[in-house]
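agent> Task received from the user: take the single chain below, predict its 3D structure, and emit structure tokens. No templates, no multimer pairing.
agent> Plan: (1) validate residues, (2) run structure prediction, (3) serialize to tokens, (4) report one or two observations.
agent> Step 1 OK, no nonstandard residues flagged.
tool_call: predict_structure(input=
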Amino acid sequence: MSDETDGPPNGDGDEALIKSELSQMSFEDLQKLKEKVGLKIYKDVLFGPKKVKKVDFKRENKNRPREMSAKKPVPRFREVIHVKKRIVRDPRFDNLCGEFDPKQFKKNYAFLSKMREDDLKNLKKQLEETNDPKTIKKIEYLIKRLENQIREEARRKKQEEKKQSEKKEIIETIKRGEKPAFKKKSEKKVLDLVSQYEELKESGKLKKHIQRLRKKNIRKSREKLES
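)
tool_result: status=success, residues=227
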């Protein structure tokens, strides 16, 4: 048999010749030929190439999208557009944003203290002008909260000044060639309590603070007895 069976026929004469040769081959030889050239070429030789009818989709209106055939194969590799991933950083925990400096932070936000004092003055003025019980209760709550914030800030500021003073005193002692005296934790605790009582006494809240401590101690004693 000629080598023309290796590919599809090129003309009617060749096709007739090949079909004639195939008709004289045994079933076993036909199976071998099918395995050799492939099923598609084998069918093309026997039955001729399959004609695909091209459908031309027309638009009723030129402004409408063109209708496409659903039989058109989908591309194996789809086009992927890479979008740059957005990285969200929290400046409080990111080393790229620098280190936290408490002194610089207080300096940058020192204006908040002035704002609290102004808000406190405005609230006290509003309290004098209003007669509504609900509004009075709300304003009193806000005034109390602001006063606590201002008091706590003043206490922290005083403690910071005290630490700076102690540090300065130690440095001066070392410069004089003397051995600095470092206070124990117990001594510092006693001094802090004395300072706290002095502040409460000046503000007129010492009696109330003592009563609250007594109630707390009585409650603890009862819990111990019950257990």
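agent> Step 4: summary for the user.
The two ends are 109 Å apart (CA to CA).
agent> Done.
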